[in-house]
Amino acid sequence: MTTVEDRIARIALTWLTEPGTWTVHRLVDQLGPAATLELLRDGGAPDEPLRATVAARAGAGDPRAVAEKALARADRLGARLVTPSDPEWPTQVGDLRRLALAGSGRRVDRDTAPPLCFWVRGAWPLAEALDRSVAVVGARAATGYGVHVATDLGYGLAERGWTVVSGGAFGIDAAAHRGTLTAGGVTVAVLACGVDRPYPVGNTALFDRIAETGLLISEWLPGAEPFRPRFLIRNRVIAAATRGSVLVEASARSGATQTLRRAAGLRRPAMVVPGPVTSALSVGAHELLREEPHTRLVTGVAHVLEEVGRIGSDLAPPARGPERPTDHLDDEATMLLESMPRRGVTGLDAIAARAGVAARTALRKLALLEQLGMVVRRAEGYALAPPVTRR
């Protein structure tokens, strides 16, 4: 069981160093949170960039006092702190230990360590809400097409008992959240700021609805601001906490594509909804399909469930056009039907010769086609049945 001191230390470390910092995570594994906090406060960080960050933050206040103030603020707004030793901790985020992103020297792509703690606003137990969950993410400046698809995905997944996770932004995120809420389902917004100051402000009413029936979660202390790098840091949690991630529209530089790259790096299902090739908001999505060998194209809820559901279950039905009467004919009957002249009557031997089947087989198959109403028998042979006139 985590001690009060350890809980305070986890909050303080998150404030001092930003979530996802690998050096801090390894120290916590080795020394524990309280001892790590003491080490950093005493200037013992193992690398210079971390020492500079700690010194700058510590100059703004005592880390423990900041943590205690954050707990009091969370208590007033009805939020709670969840740590790895709590029963509701989502253990799947620990898979971030094996995430390695190649080809980037940016800190947000290097520091992808598991969270030290979560702030949670809402009644659902965090682990339970995320157990059967799918992320739906995408462009803020979404098109009508993208909003329609995201809303349908949110609604359809909720109908089937899945939690929908997104980032609470305008566009695709908000559409996915709203679709889920309309279906009476559970949705989780993973924020890049405090759970008491949702961003964007224009979605405040949406966040209030989510908190009533789902969850708002964040690694940052109540009151924390939504700085730009925090959105990319946050995206690793969306990818790791869910069973798979779906991208609906994204420009070439969209942050939402980074969620998919993190999901693919974790070997979680990374799914992309295709869009018009003439749309700038399809470029990022289509490039992922070209560049990431583990991404899959999906066009609706059935495809998503096939990727994230149980093996042998949740299979999407094959796509096919309307069923025709001829679909169930065998090869010989089909060839005989094709060999019939469009007009007039033809004898049995002539039809059999054109179809390349024996006369006896032709007689048997033509009798079947007659029963099915596809041919009619005349005194001088066989003819195609007249088309049915619909009134």
Q: In words, what does this structure look like?
A:
It is elongated and about 105 Å long. The protein has 17 helices and eleven strands. With 391 residues, it is α/β, with parallel strands linked by helices. Helix 9 crosses helix 10.
Strand order of the largest sheet: 1-2-6-5-4-3-7-8-9
Q: Give, in order, the helices and strands.
A: HHHHHEHEHEHEHEHEHEHEHEHHHHEE
Q: Pick out the low-confidence regions.
A: none
Q: β content, as a range?
A: 5-15%
Shape: elongated
- Structural class by SSE content: alpha/beta
Number of helices: 17
Estimate the helix proportion, in percent.
Answer: 40-55%
CA radius of gyration is 30 Å
Q: In total, how many beta strands?
A: 11
Spatial separation of the terminal alpha carbons: 75 Å
Q: Can you give the mean pLDDT? A: 92
- Quaternary status: single chain
Largest sheet: 9 strands, mixed
